[in-house]
Amino acid sequence: MTLILALDFGGTKLAAATVHAGSKQWLGYERRLSPANANADTDLEIMRSVINSLLKGAKPEAIGVSFGGPVDATTGKVRLSHHVLGWENVPLRDLLEEEFGVPAYVDNDANVAALGEYRFGAGQGYDSLFYMTVSTGVGGGWILNGKPWRGAEGMAGEIGHMVVDPAGSVCLCGKRGCVERLASGPYIAQDVREVLRNEPPRRKERQGRRGEVLRGLVGDNLELITGQIVSEAAIAGDNLAQEILYRASWALGVGIGNVANLINPQLFVLGGGVMKAGEDFWQVLRRVARETALPEVNFEIVSAALGDDAPLWGAVALAEDILG
Amino acid sequence: MTLILALDFGGTKLAAATVHAGSKQWLGYERRLSPANANADTDLEIMRSVINSLLKGAKPEAIGVSFGGPVDATTGKVRLSHHVLGWENVPLRDLLEEEFGVPAYVDNDANVAALGEYRFGAGQGYDSLFYMTVSTGVGGGWILNGKPWRGAEGMAGEIGHMVVDPAGSVCLCGKRGCVERLASGPYIAQDVREVLRNEPPRRKERQGRRGEVLRGLVGDNLELITGQIVSEAAIAGDNLAQEILYRASWALGVGIGNVANLINPQLFVLGGGVMKAGEDFWQVLRRVARETALPEVNFEIVSAALGDDAPLWGAVALAEDILG
């Protein structure tokens, strides 16, 4: 049986797994957090020890790798990581091929997760789909004609920085109202915090429950607010949380509708923490996407099936493709 | 030598040409306007007479067809025309194959023009590009991996109805501030007309030349204003014309930057009457596209090379592909 090694350099976490080609069950599986002051060397060191503990001397036939940052998939060279220092121009594929003496393939996490969902998850049976992850950032990856579409220089899928509201707030990318600025977890939390800071707590009745559930959940310590807490507050009826999440789901819906008009894929697969914001969130997103797309443009929007393991399963698919 | 017949059902005009496969020069070429009350039958009748006058009894080996409206390229069936009545569900490919006894291929004009520019025009030597036509409407067509990408149901390329300003004016499509609402010729003319209607002519000096050149060009008959006249007025220094065109080029730039982030093609090829609006127009469009795309996303933006003949040349490419 053909042994495959799948690696996921996720930015804040590192994961590795082994599987027999053709199987849908992990043989071995390990996940670790990156240390606070991680750099490329410490990431590689931790990954090496995880790999050794998984392989126990066995030799894989191929290695598939998901990397959390831009990668030139044709050369397997990492361009950089936005989270971890020292990854500039690291020839990750060559390093792994040399160290393990087997072929490897490296691609960025959104592309790899898209491939994972396509081959093993929510995208099985379709042949064109757009995978989106909505969490710390908003990223995406394409499957067109049953194959990853990476773009001319491997940069395709960047829906996060599509401008949907030119009058919106400024994003780190320098633009106003891009999808990531409106719909990523940290920005959702930041916007909620800012409103609460500018509003004295517990105002009169007219204000209703706006912000009260939120304040309650974090004991008035606004620093503790996260995207997840905003979701919880919204589900518990907090109007402010609902407003900010409405805007996020609206932004995602506009983005998805625009993408549908442009590329007309069969399916959108949505994953990431923010997508756990509840039924209302999904409903608004679906409605706005439908309104934004032309009436003749059909598509489905479904939830990702593989959760945090999508990049690892995509890495398995990359390795299987090497083996042919 | 292999004779090819290329047809262009363009909505307001009909064109046909013949060429020897592999040649870049027309053997015969004819172009006619649709009559005012055209329907599918009159279009087909006119096209038949054009074809007969071109072929003079000779028989082509294959027929390529560009149609100005949504088409199911896999069956060659026209879905409808937005300009001409009676085209609903017309099996155009089958009609032509039966009548001429040779294989035919039918696709919508944006896809076909993209293929034309790719094979014979500004896109030669590239293998991923997005073609856009900015005129009465705003449409687009994809070449990915050297082949047309039509989408799951042939609807890909609809950049015209990408929303770029959710606070903008309402388009016929029902949405606010889509690219076509801001950048198509008729809407540019309409917006200029509306401002002029609401402003008394020849106001004080503070108003400067705003609208004056425009009024001069049409002898104060605002109905005569077209996109082309707005361009002329802008080049002659009319501030109002410049403002409205600035917004149009801004909308196109945002759309192009968003598309670059999403698909990362090598090249954008821009054609259509509105693209003749002068150097300033191109400059703004290029700058905004560059600012909208992520810094790592590279692309070129060039002018279409084939003008009105892009769909005919694309039809030639379709026919050549039938012949293998």
Helix and strand arrangement:
Two copies of one chain form a homodimer.
Chain A: E1 3-9, E2 13-20, E3 28-33, H1 40-55, E4 62-67, E5 71-72, E6 77-78, H2 92-100, E7 104-108, H3 109-120, E8 129-134, E9 138-144, E10 147-149, H4 179-183, H5 185-198, H6 212-217, H7 227-235, H8 239-263, E11 267-271, H9 279-292, E12 300-303, H10 310-323
Parallel strand pairs in A: 1-4, 4-7, 8-11, 11-12
Antiparallel strand pairs in A: 1-2, 2-3, 5-6, 8-9, 9-10
Task: Provide tags for this entry.
homodimer; 324 residues; alpha/beta; Nucleotidyltransferase, domain 5; five-stranded mixed sheet; 10 helices; 38% helix
Describe this structure in words.
The structure is a homodimer of 324-residue chains. The first copy, chain A, is α/β, with parallel strands linked by helices. Chain A folds into two domains: 3-121 and 306-323, ATPase, nucleotide binding domain (Nucleotidyltransferase, domain 5); 159-303, ATPase, nucleotide binding domain (Nucleotidyltransferase, domain 5, 2-Layer Sandwich). The first copy, chain A, is 38% helix and 19% strand. The first copy, chain A, has helices spanning 40-55, 92-100, 109-120, 179-183, 185-198, 212-217, 227-235, 239-263, 279-292, 310-323, and strands at residues 3-9, 13-20, 28-33, 62-67, 71-72, 77-78, 104-108, 129-134, 138-144, 147-149, 267-271, 300-303. In chain A, the strands form three sheets. Chain A has a five-stranded mixed sheet. In chain A, a hairpin with a 3-residue loop joins strand 1 (3-9) and strand 2 (13-20). In chain A, helix 5 crosses helix 7 (227-235) and helix 5 runs antiparallel to helix 8. Chain A is globular and about 60 Å long. The mean pLDDT of chain A is 93. Chains A and B meet through strand 9 and helix 8 of A and strand 9 and helix 8 of B.
